[in-house]
Amino acid sequence: MAIGIDLVPSVQLSRVAESEKHGENSPYFAGWKAYDEDPYHEVENPSGVIQMGLAENQVSFDLLEDYLEKHPEASIWGKGALGFREKALFQDYHGLLSFRKAMTSFMEQIRGGRAKFDSERIVLTAGATAANELLTFILANPGDALLVPTPYYPGFDRDLRWRTGVRIVPIICNSSNNFQITPQVLEAAYENAESLNLRVRGVLITNPSNPLGATIQRQVLEEILDFVARKNIHLVSDEIYSGSAFSSSEFVSVAEVLESRPDRHHRYRDRVHIVYSLSKDLGLPGFRVGTIYSYNDKVVATARRMSSFTLISSQTQHLLACMLSDTEFTSRYIETNRARLKKRYGIIVEGLEKAGIECLGGNAGLFCWMNLSPLLENLDREGELELWKTLVYELKLNISPGSSCHCSEPGWFRVCFANMSEHTLEVALARIQKYVEQRMNAVII
Amino acid sequence: MRSGRKPLLSKLATNDGHAENSPYFDGWKAYERDPFHPTRNADGVIQMGLAENQLCFDMIEEWLINNPQASICTAQGLGMFKDTAIFQDYHGLPEFRNAVAKFMGRVRGNRAKFDPDRIVMSGGATGAHELISFCLADPGDTFLVPTPYYPGFDRDVCWRTGVQLLPVVCDSSNGFMVTRNALESAYENAKAANTPVKGLLITNPSNPLGTVLDKETLRDILSFVNEKNIHLVSDEIYSATVFNDKPRFTGVSEIIEEDQTLCNPNLVHVIYSLSKDLGFPGFRVGIVYSYNDEVVGCARKMSSFGLVSSQTQHLVASLLSDDVFVEKFLSESARRLENRHRIFTDNLDQVGIKCLQRNAGLFQLMDLSHLLRDKTFEAEMELWKVIIDEVKLNISPGSSFHSSEPGWFRVCIANMDDQTVDVALRRIRAFVSRSEGAMAASAKKKRCWQNQNRKLRVSLSYRRMEELMMMPPLSPIPQSPLLRAQT
């Protein structure tokens, strides 16, 4: 049967392929496209779109480059390429022991030594994107639900749901108490899931939170642990921003809470799983370094097997094993990185204050959560999107509307501040100040 | 308040879909417990179950020393560190895609051209197979796959996707060729059982056969999938291990470029990786290449779950865009693979072991059926156990590859140095002569017994065989009554 090139019939792909759950048709990505088409450049395109929608950490690269200059052994070229063969062949899904040990040491340092990690419980994945999906495959069946506090990282819609067939039921938090998670909203979410005939398998929190830019308090963590124990479900704590808390003491990891309550250990242990990555704290998203840390042996074993689909390049494991096992370097890095992020946060909050814009009190992360509701024409989702279009296409700032993060209240926006130079940040703030001024003048007139 | 209740895990987490309960892994475990080392453990198990390519590392090491800029950690390359480290775009570095596309074309003697915009990354070929299955099929759908096939497919194609594999049985009567009859038969059986066939998965060059598909067969396959409107996934991971032109390697790309009326290109997808051709399994460089725009788009989005480290992309881009090096590498690699092939086939031939004729891959398929007690898979497992435990060679039994005929064993030969090759061959020679002696003696004994006592008693070796039979089923796939299609 001859088929002409122009008459090629379409063929069926899978339901997963046809679904929209990759999430790329949301505003979150439309802003990126605007940036791609007209990217800001200090010299070459000073009126271009400034990327403030990408939670990247570019404030501490000099520290990494400096380290590499002094430590040629971090490259697999280091010993005249003699180590190359072993690394190139190493595909064991346990991962390089030296790398796992370096990761646990780094994670412990970030938590100020208040929690200990066992390198045998570390499972490697190509980024936190893969880690969150993988855990979902393990903890839930298609059609089951995970409870996730809103507002949340838009990528979860894809990572937790797309190929897994698992549902997300929001734990609706609101600004009246700074979007904190309470036993009431947890219970409400659980009941909501039940009313939809969905079996809840776990709660997934991000701590420090994206997009809030704030850490979860110890007491709240204890309440969440009690809740999951009562419901006999899992807790996934995505701690990808743990090293980006502005001060070490303000971040409390679920690991610490577990360790500080040995009496409750048996109730909590098998439920708790931590996701981590070097994409934010070290600013290395391109290297695809994600980890799952689970206190549940069966989850560790299964996750390890599943990680075959998404291992970390041994070349990269080697590099990071060298870097992260240098505890003097990492301790200095963590401290300096925190200070620089804190300073950036100070600059942006001050700049926004000058424009009369309030932010949620933040103490972590690469972004701040600002309240633009006073600027909305209508205090609803459409009003928010209208303002967002103005921000992207007129002010040329790609920031993320709260609706893309499933925020229950219109008017909140996430703005990233660590993926640009200080100068660019000032340019962005100036644009905002000018816009607000114009709006106020327009009102007066 | 109840305490100590264990929270449930998913069905995926608790089933056998990871396929690690197969003998394929038991041999590995034996190796791990007692690994051969020429000086420290000369009596250890020699790993001949791992299809790795270690023959050309010296060439790569030399290139690396001469090209420090290919690393982003060296003084020469550090300038690229930041830009590379923040690059997480799932399109991949353009220079990476360009270099891989060019390399794939070069491997095919430039008889096919690859478009860098169709190159999608994945976590090794392992990730690529799972990814393409997610794109093309729904849970419960079926892919046909000619036997014998790489055991990893049971996990990669089926585990998290819910897709099933249905064997298309090929056998040695015609050199394991994939015939139109076999394909039609498998398809009809699947249809009759209401298991919708969504695609056909071929590996070319084949693992474990080490053979390449001839042009006629490829054309037949393409016309078959076109007629049924099902997908063709062609795993060409061993494409650069073809060491001579007898016959020349032809990939599906060449055929559809040559004859655009033969098959709807929207049905054709190629899987590739650098793990075998270059010997880089640790770097996790998997590629999905599709002629279907929609699949490229979807696969690219999905690749977020298994991107190649940008550090590695940078290295690979530098290496593969060095045309002089690539030329030199491909021809020298083929020469060394052919040499290794000849050493094994000659030596095995001398002790009466025939291998399937091949000109590709990193392994041989040996015919040990004459050493089996009888022509059964039980006997094959028995022999395999002896080879692992006594001869101390981890080789792979044909049953782990879903072979329809007992007696075939795959032995990997490119993952060791010359010294180890000698030791392995020596052990095989010794084993064969022991076995022949033992078989002659037992044949004589058997005649005595038969004369004395007509009833055969269950021997110790049978008991061991029964223990082996208690192992979990080889296939994690729910037992379908149509597990095999007949030719």
From TrEMBL, chain A:
It holds the Pfam family Aminotran_1_2. Keywords: Pyridoxal phosphate. Residues 50-432 form the Aminotransferase class I/classII large domain. The keyword RNA-binding does not apply. GO terms for molecular function: 1-aminocyclopropane-1-carboxylate synthase activity; pyridoxal phosphate binding; transaminase activity. It comes from the Eukaryota. The keyword tRNA processing does not apply. Belongs to the class-I pyridoxal-phosphate-dependent aminotransferase family. PANTHER family: AMINOTRANSFERASE CLASS I_CLASSII DOMAIN-CONTAINING PROTEIN (PTHR43795:SF39), BIFUNCTIONAL ASPARTATE AMINOTRANSFERASE AND GLUTAMATE/ASPARTATE-PREPHENATE AMINOTRANSFERASE-RELATED (PTHR43795). This is Aminotransferase class I/classII large domain-containing protein. It comes from Trapa natans.
From TrEMBL, chain B:
CDD domains: AAT_like. The keyword S-adenosyl-L-methionine applies. Coiled coil: none annotated. Pathway: Alkene biosynthesis; ethylene biosynthesis via S-adenosyl-L-methionine; ethylene from S-adenosyl-L-methionine: step 1/2. One of its GO terms (molecular function) is 1-aminocyclopropane-1-carboxylate synthase activity. It catalyses: S-adenosyl-L-methionine = 1-aminocyclopropane-1-carboxylate + S-methyl-5'-thioadenosine + H(+). Pfam families: Aminotran_1_2 (PF00155). Its EC number is 4.4.1.14. InterPro entries: Aminotransferase_I/II_large, Ethylene_sulfur-biosynth, NHTrfase_class1_PyrdxlP-BS, PyrdxlP-dep_Trfase, PyrdxlP-dep_Trfase_major, PyrdxlP-dep_Trfase_small. Its cofactor is pyridoxal 5'-phosphate. Keywords: Ethylene biosynthesis, Lyase, Pyridoxal phosphate, S-adenosyl-L-methionine. The keyword Magnesium does not apply. Signal peptide: none annotated. Belongs to the class-I pyridoxal-phosphate-dependent aminotransferase family. This is 1-aminocyclopropane-1-carboxylate synthase.
